[in-house]
Amino acid sequence: MADARRPLISGNWKMNHNHFEAIQAVQKLAYVLNPADHDVVDVSVHPPFTDIRSVQTVIESDQMRLILGAQHCHFEEKGAFTGEVSPTMLAKLNVALVIVGHSERREVFGETDEEARRKVAAVLSNGMTPIFCCGETQEERVAGGTDDKVSGQVRAGLAGLSPQQVAGLVIAYEPIWAIGTGLTATPEDAQAACRVLRGVVADGWGRATADSVRIQYGGSVKPVNAPDMMMQPDIDGLLVGGASLDPNEFARIVAYHRLIG
Ligand code: 13P
Question: Cβ(120) to ligand 1 under 6 A?
């Protein structure tokens, strides 16, 4: 991994933790993380919308080195979109990272490539960084369609962005069959897909951009498999679901760097 790409370990809480539980979780996480972890790894938490203001207050008042993230947003600034939250509202809460196009948004809520593209643009124009997700289903993998699927998602989602914008992004490769299933991609398979994604960025936005963009792996990440994933040359971070709900387990994932030196 190039030195320029600082590792990013992100906890996507999905629809878990009310705001009381969220406060407890970040306090415990800040306590169990080693200060030295923050010197080498960026760590973000992505609570549900109803928790974000509470988590922001705790992070800022206790001067924690955790990065505040969101899981989703709409692409419009405001308007008649019942139930949605705008990127402007998130930016006002000092949210820095927003997950866009997670497979659960795509598969369960029907989010399209075009919507994901508009969200990426809206997140960027509000001064935040998208974590742009892509990944293939089991059927697509078996049919040999992994590379085409994830490449197409990235080309569609990042269309129209400048090299400078893409260089600052985070892309998350999350094979759908590995999410919440306990099945993890092998480090070699994850590396192969992340390498393809870096190649897509190089083709579209240039080699220097590809060398800067950070690529995460997600899908049943646990303390036991985190170090092997992070040793792969094109994997710069991890997007963690279930294991991020337990601060001890998440902190052990963040501590991967102590095992690989
Ligand atoms: P799990 O770690 O629970 O498999 O979830 C992965 C994920 O979807 C993170 O965004």
Answer: no
Closest CA to 56 of 97, 14, 85, 15: 97
Backbone angles phi, psi at 41, to 5 degrees: -130, 135
CA 186 remoteness from chain centre = 19
Distance of CA 217 to the CA centre of its chain: 8
Structure tokens at 230: 């992070």
Question: What whole-number distance in Å separates Cα of residue 103 and Cα of residue 115?
Answer: 13
- How confident is residue 256, by pLDDT bands cut at 50, 70 and 90? very high
Tens-digit pLDDT profile for residues 154-172: 999 999 999 999 999 999 9
Q: How far is CA 150 from CA 37, 191, 212, 258, in A?
A: 31, 13, 19, 31
Q: Which residues of 226-239 are buried (b: 16+ CB within 10 A; e: fewer)?
A: bbbbbebebbbbbb
Annotated catalytic, 107? Answer: no
Domain at 8-260: CATH code = 3.20.20.70
Residue 174 annotated in active site: yes
The single residue of 17, 72, 74, 102 carrying the catalytic annotation is 102
Q: Kindly report, residue by residue over 94-110, the tens digit of the pLDDT.
A: 999 999 999 999 999 99
